[in-house]
Amino acid sequence: MARIKGVDIPDNKRVEISLTYIYGIGKNLSKTILDNVKIDSNKKVSELSSDELTLIREEIDRHITEGDLRREVSMNIKTKMETNSYEGTRHRRGLPVRGQRTNRNARTRKGKGKVVANKKK
């Protein structure tokens, strides 16, 4: 298994897909990285030489990924919570942040349904 930015990348998949295992790299960014390095995106990771892997690592280092990106996102959320912005208060309460309805769905954010006593009358 190749290791890039502290993430084990699967050998049996195409390079384009396996780069998406790194946090902050999606399909589009992986395509542009491989285009800049001039490596065929259909090649499997196990077929890459060590020189090609170092070229990919150097190209990925130019982008904010993994720990730095996670830290930046969490700092942005903390800043919103400290400034008492609308998004920050939604984060603090554990409710949907991006304008979704809460009266019927939002179970992923709100958690399991709470039982209300004496509801049936």
- Please report the distance between the alpha carbons of the first and last residues: 62 Å
What is the CA-atom radius of gyration, in angstroms?
Answer: 21 Å
Estimate nothing, just give the exact number of structural domains: 2
Largest sheet: 2 strands, antiparallel
Q: What's the arrangement of strands in the largest beta sheet?
A: 1-2
The coarse silhouette is elongated
Report on the structure:
By secondary structure, the protein is mainly alpha-helical. The chain has two domains: 2-66, Helicase, Ruva Protein, domain 3, CATH 1.10.8.50; 84-110, 30s ribosomal protein s13, domain 2. It has six helices and two strands, in the order E-E-H-H-H-H-H-H. The chain has helices spanning 15-18, 27-37, 50-61, 66-82, 86-93, 107-110, and strands at 2-4, 7-9. It has a two-stranded antiparallel ribbon. Helix 2 crosses helix 3 and helix 4 (66-82) crosses helix 5. The termini are far apart. The model has no long low-confidence stretch (mean pLDDT 91).
Structure at a glance:
Helix content is 46%, strand content 5%. It has 121 residues and is mainly alpha-helical. The mean pLDDT is 91.
